[in-house]
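Here is one such protein, fold included:

. . .
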Amino acid sequence: QVQLVESGGGLVQTGGSLRLSCAASRNIFSINAMGWYRQAPGKQREWVAAITSGGRTNYADSVKGRFTISRDNAKNTVYLQMNSLKPEDTAVYYCNAHVTTMTQIYDYWGQGTQVTVSS
């Protein structure tokens, strides 16, 4: 079981920056991958970025070059640095922890944090 708590959302102007944090209730070193998703009003939740336990990162094309995902295992925290924000980045951002065992797969979610980018 993993509890995730996001923070760092808010209102920012176009071109601005925000850093989201996701604090986990247990050590994240053994979690296979952690990621960020977002959901805009009236749209489906979409994947934004992910980082594996080995530190490999991947990004959605829409955020590549603007967002950076990172992890601090000592603090059990994953970050999403968002630069050059656009109005279309407005959404609720959710942290995800993806855990696989020999027999099962688990996905854990945070409660979400609102990001609003004004034009």
Remarks:
- The two ends are 40 Å apart (CA to CA).
- The CA atoms of residues 20 and 32 lie 20 Å apart.
- The mean pLDDT is 95.
- The longest strand covers residues 91-100.
